[in-house]
Amino acid sequence: MKIPPSSFRGGAFLAVALAATGAVGAQPARSGGAEDVIKLEEFSVTDSVATGYRATNSITATGIGMKISETPIPISVVTSELIADVSADTLSEALTYVSGVGTSPRNESTFLVRGFSGLISYRNGQYRRQLFTTYNVDRVEVAKGAAGIFFGTVRPGGVINYITRRPKLEQSASTEVRAAMGKHNYYKGEVYHNQPLSKQFGFSVGLAVLDAGGDQQFEYNRERFANVGFTWRPADRHSLVLELENIDRSRFYLSSYGSRAVTNSRWLNNPVALAFPVNQSTTAAATAMRNWLNSQGYSANPLAPNFVPTFDIFAPIYGPIDPQGRTISLTSDARQTQRSKTVDLDYLFKISNSLVWQTNLNYAYDNTSGIQPSNGDTNPYADGSLRFQTESFINKRYSYNIDNKLNWRFEAVGGRHVWMLGQEFQSVDFLRPGYRDAQLRYNNSPLGAFVTNFRPGVSPHASVYQSINASGQDFNINRWTLEEQFGAFFAGQSNFFNQRLFMIYGGRYTSFKQKYTYSVPVSNGQTGEADPGVSPQAAILFKVTPEISVFANGSRAVEPNYSIDADGNASEPIKSKSADFGLKTELMKGRLVSTITYYDLERGNLAYNDVAKQAAIGRSPYFIYGNTEVSSGIEADFNLSPTDNYQLMFSYNHFIKAEVSQSNDVTRIGAPLNYNPANSYKLWNRYNITEGALKGLAIGAGLRHSDGARLSGDPLNQVMMPAFTTYDLMFSYATTIGGRRVSAQLNIKNVTDKLYRDGTDGYFADKRNVIFSVRTKF
Predict the structure, then answer these.
(1) What distance in Å separates the CA atoms of residue 262 and residue 467, rounded to the nearest whole number?
(2) CA dihedral (323, 326, 328, 331) positive or negative
(3) Using CB atoms within 10 A of its CB, is residue 667 exposed (0-12), middle (13-18) or buried (19+)?
(4) Which of 45, 146, 11, 134 is nearest to 83 (CA)?
């Protein structure tokens, strides 16, 4: 594996960080009062601090383990027990029953939180780009709204942080084994072993394999997972955790399935439109459709107000072979391979009873490569045909993170406080091999020749390799993109009046740098600069009674925006703000826990592609500046356990608005954001039989509903996503065999085999699936 240019800088930063921790470690310890004693265990949370589906503590929103009921931020936690009950293979499945969170059935990296989508996911507090599986995941925390201090460059909806299992010294040696099989040749095996060797040292090992087909032709998914962790506590004041992880995946490229093409019913199969002359070699279907609509006096008519059930953006199906347009794919050789390697080193030093130093070092390597359809018509020609290209792509990412924090707990002015001073540095090198053309222009990928006059379901399956080979393009240039972020922050947590008033306050300074390097000279080289930004945050919670609390919070955040148009005009940094007002309860002696929140979010200085200007001038990119997106709504989460053997989770989200509020293009003002249903609700419950002949049997059931909503805010694309309601079932039976506890589980997902579209891309979700698994621990 080639070492990127910044690796030497990264090594230097690691050395500096370790030297810093050593210098701090040399300071003498100081004593503090018993009430001020800070414990190392507070800097990590596990599902040992959870009962069933209810977690009591969270670390994502505050950087230190804190009771959720006393945190003035809405927090949802998906426990390991819920992940197991719903048989989730990916984070998107695990988040199915969390309010305000949307996922995509065909893109695991796309999450939607309170109306805003993007890569907003973290692993143990460090940014994660791909392979969001549930291997070795202990819990998933969703901190909604205010997150400006600890994460800086985030979307205003919130962040998703999943926490992995680490070696547990306080537990005896144990091994967990799970084997599963299901429809479509689904086979999965997992083994996790925890081995404490002493009170000071232990390790854990995790291994997993997944081989699965799918309900669509050519579909396959193969994954391999390995993880090893070490915990060392040489003394009461020191803790060192090292974790190494590797995940490999190979699969058929999912965008080659029938899903979501859109058209105008006046155009498709209209005899008048069929007579309209079109040269598919030079004219895209969308352009041809627009020209024809204009010629017929429909210039104000949206280009695409209708789904075509039998078409996909890349891989449609046409005609009677599959009227649902989902089963047969366009290509048989499209593929994608992914690999992620991660190294985490976390060090804690308890300087005194009131001072703790933290250093977190992270290295991550992500590689995504493959060959796939590209530049495909999202709209068919009038005769139902289309054209598309293919591309071969390689995207490698090397990242280095160095975080240092000093935590001080003390009492003053009638309250108890924890102050945190932090520094974070991230250096990311992206390697994107590409193609340099005759004009010396860099292109992200070698592109295949256009496949034209393709009639899905009629023409033979096209080969992406044949298209690439016909073009003669191949990789002949490397582009390195170096991005660096530096952040420094202060975060304070205080409580007063005998722990009735809780506050979080502070701010963060973040600076950004970006630099492009090419292996050979190019005529379209890029550069990027982004102004630094400050992210303040404040939050307050007041316990009206021991069971009922009210809270409010607000935050601002800044994101780098490196977009530069063809004339050299740079975009301004993206700035966002969020505000929450809500109620938290712990009623019935903690058996009924709820959070009800009103949220109001804004994200501004966005740059939209100016497709019309690009087409008119013949150069790209050009942008429409001055865009601001807003969302506001009400969300509610309830966790009920009226008895020890019954649990129920219910969540609800209502969007009051989710739209573009400002734009230099007046036609976009008021346009909805991508797929945000006005109402969505989710329910999951489980009942355990604890006595009688059926003792050991558990039954779980869930439902998920979303209203219909616009697929896109594009004024030319007014396609509606239909409403849907789906149901899931779970049956499990636990017993003792040979002195060992064994459980068998049956999951039926999408019980009614409903065909429906989901997510911001409008893809079809999975149809009914059945998975049987057996689990034991010894």
Answers:
(1) 24
(2) positive
(3) exposed
(4) 134
Place of tokens 């459980």: 743
Higher-confidence residue of 528 and 751: namely 751
- Residue among 475, 566, 569, 479 nearest 515 (CA): 479
Tokens coding 61: 């929103």
Q: Is the pLDDT of residue 412 over 70?
A: yes
Q: How many alpha carbons lie under 13 Å from residue 564 in its C-beta half-sphere?
A: 13
Q: Which residues have C-beta within 8 Å of that of residue 23, sequence separation ≥ 6?
A: none
Q: Is-contact 574 563, C-beta < 8 A?
A: no
Token pair listed for 83: 């992940």
User: Structure tokens of 722?
Assistant: 């239909």
Q: Which tokens in the block code for residue 692?
A: 């009688």
Q: Is the pTM of this model over 0.90?
A: no
End-to-end CA distance of the chain: 39
Q: Label each residue of 296-349 as H, E or C.
A: CCCCCCCCECEECCCCCCCCCCCHHHCCCCCCCCCECCCEEEEEEEEEEEEEEE
Tokens 């009674």 belong to residue: 545
Residue 364 one-letter amino acid? A
Task: Please write the tens of the pLDDT for every residue from 589-619.
Answer: 889 999 999 999 999 988 887 766 765 665 6
Q: How far is CA 542 from the centre of its chain?
A: 32
- Residue 515 pairs with which residues in a beta bridge? 482
Give CA–CA dist 458/328, Å, rounded.
11
Neighbours of 294 (CB within 10 A): 12
Answer yes or no: are the C-beta atoms of 145 and 552 closer than 8 Å.
Answer: no
Phi, psi of 152 (to 5 degrees): 65, -85
Output DSSP code: residue 635. E
User: Per-residue pLDDT tens for 39-88?
Assistant: 766 776 655 555 678 888 888 777 777 888 999 999 999 999 999 999 99
